[in-house]
């Protein structure tokens, strides 16, 4: 009996059970709540559509005079570069359900293309491919993102394109990141590891991709709006929302500090959401953060012995993909406001972990299973979340650290092949 093949098939069986439990308890994987009896409402998309309706009247995309516009997480208007708005504007003459249908189909195609692109870039085949497909399909943050027609789906596609360019062109990798950042600014931070490695050609590509994408958006929305965003709106945006949908480490620490000090949070802190008052939930959350981060750090640094010589011996494709993953994981964990929808992008390091984890490394397998379970089950909004939002948010916060540990432990080993 081939133990490796048996282990993989057992893992596939576990994933199937997770999918069944998720569908039963949380509703359809494709929507945020249980199957709706009416057409789904894509709230964020409709908010942006409303901004474009006002744009047609006022000729300004950024309604900064609205109360709370610059507060982190406030749902009062469009607060991004004009790229995505420029894609919506040509459809403005049609009813909004028709526009939503077009963008829903486009997003579904983008999800399939991103998944296929990542699997091709990683060279997945055999049992690894059989494992990667259900892991990607069951990655609930993607479907949560789709439920609002958020911008993370096209950004995920850009990451897949960057991975495809990993062994071919540094300029191509940078251009893909440049396009991603033209939708929302934070993907440009994914290039930070390349800055430390002095990959200057990549930054040339990033600049070209960003300039061309924003320039093309000017065909639909005048470029003065891009100037207004980057020089007048963006410098005033910021802050840390303590809403449970903000799963960044700063937000989690902020919530714990409020619990420990007993300070009553203001409405601006929580964006209309209350903190759990149950003391048990408070200490469970604090304990989860301390235990998980401590355990990950201990096992990661105990196992990892990556030296410069070992790093330089890795194939260029693998080094580039690891740096992309490091940029994604570090950015989503540490930026002040990292919304739940952003974790759609963790599908990339997740698939890389599936591709490179060694079955003999039991700690990495356990960490990867933990990440898959959290991402497949604990990402819906239902009765359980309403009762224990802090615990759900804490699990979601530690998710990037689980994947980072798996990748760190795999970086000191050679290429991984599928078991025969």
From TrEMBL:
Keywords: Cell membrane, Membrane, Transferase, Transmembrane, Transmembrane helix. This is DUF2029 domain-containing protein. It comes from the Bacteria. Belongs to the glycosyltransferase 87 family. It is found in: Cell membrane. GO terms for cellular component: plasma membrane. The chain crosses the membrane at residues 102-124, 173-195, 202-221, 283-301, 321-342, 362-381. Its main location: membrane. One of its GO terms (molecular function) is hexosyltransferase activity. Signal peptide: none annotated. It is a multi-pass membrane protein.
């Amino acid at each position: 009996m081939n133990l490796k093949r048996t282990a993989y098939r057992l893992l596939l069986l576990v994933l199937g059970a997770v999918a069944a439990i998720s569908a039963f308890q949380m509703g359809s994987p494709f929507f945020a709540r249980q199957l709706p009896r009416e057409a789904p409402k894509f709230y964020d998309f409709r908010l942006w559509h409303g901004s474009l309706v006002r744009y047609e009247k006022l000729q300004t995309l950024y309604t900064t005079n609205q109360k709370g516009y610059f507060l982190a997480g406030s749902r009062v208007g469009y607060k991004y570069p004009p790229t995505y708005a420029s894609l919506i504007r040509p459809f403005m003459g049609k009813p909004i359900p028709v526009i939503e249908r077009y963008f829903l189909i486009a997003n579904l195609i983008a999800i399939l293309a991103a998944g296929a692109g990542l699997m091709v870039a990683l060279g997945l085949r055999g049992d690894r491919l059989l494992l990667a497909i259900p892991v990607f399909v069951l990655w609930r943050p993607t479907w949560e993102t789709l439920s609002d027609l958020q911008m993370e789906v096209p950004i995920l596609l850009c990451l897949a394109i960057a991975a495809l360019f990993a062994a071919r062109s540094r300029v191509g990798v940078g251009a893909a990141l440049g396009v991603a950042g033209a939708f929302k600014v934070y993907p440009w931070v994914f290039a930070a590891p390349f800055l430390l490695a002095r990959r200057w050609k990549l930054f040339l590509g990033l600049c070209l991709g960003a300039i061309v994408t924003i320039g093309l958006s000017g065909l639909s929305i005048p470029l003065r709006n891009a100037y207004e965003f980057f020089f007048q709106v963006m410098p005033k945006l910021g802050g840390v929302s303590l809403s449970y949908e903000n799963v960044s480490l700063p937000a989690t620490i902020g919530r714990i500090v409020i619990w420990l000090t007993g300070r009553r949070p203001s409405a601006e802190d929580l964006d209309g959401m209350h903190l759990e008052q149950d003391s048990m939930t408070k200490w469970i959350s604090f304990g989860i953060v301390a235990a998980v981060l401590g355990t990950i750090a201990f096992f990661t640094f105990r196992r990892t012995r990556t030296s410069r010589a070992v790093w330089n011996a890795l194939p260029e494709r693998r080094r580039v993909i690891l740096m992309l993953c490091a940029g994604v994981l570090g950015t989503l964990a540490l930026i002040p406001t990292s919304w739940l929808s952003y974790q759609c992008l963790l599908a990339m390091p997740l698939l890389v972990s599936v591709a490179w984890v060694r079955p003999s490394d039991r700690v990495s397998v356990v960490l990867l299973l933990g990440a898959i379970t959290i991402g497949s089950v604990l990402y819906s909004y239902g009765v359980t979340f309403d009762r224990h939002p802090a615990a759900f948010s804490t699990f979601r916060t530690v998710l990037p650290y689980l994947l980072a540990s798996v990748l760190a432990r795999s970086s000191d080993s050679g290429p991984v092949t599928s078991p025969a």
